[in-house]
């Protein structure tokens, strides 16, 4: 429902999650944080190669999104 509403109403949503699988489905912009420090900010449109930090890649791997 969030995606439907966002598309119809064109609003900004700040969504905080530890679930990378969910983040890549919901977000256009993803901020990856570690210990309260911003590690990486990416514009996301489905291509996981936009993630360049090793920490982000580790999270993607741990979530089962990538196998490398």
The largest beta-sheet arranges its strands as: 1-2
Q: Mean pLDDT score, rounded?
A: 89
Number of domains: 1
Regions with pLDDT < 50 over 5+ consecutive residues?
none
Strand content: 15-25%
Number of strands: 2
**Class by helix and strand content?**
alpha+beta
Q: Helix count, per DSSP? A: 3
Task: Give the N-to-C terminal Cα separation.
Answer: 32 Å
Radius of gyration: 12 Å
Percent helix: 25-40%
* N-to-C order of helices and strands: HHEEH
Estimate the global geometry from the Cα principal axes: globular
Task: Report the sheet with the most strands, covering strand number, pairing sense and barrel closure.
Answer: 2 strands, antiparallel
Describe the structure.
The structure is a single chain. It is built from 3 helices and 2 strands. It has 68 residues and is α+β, with helices and mostly antiparallel strands. It has one domain. The mean pLDDT is 89. InterPro entries: P-loop_NTPase.
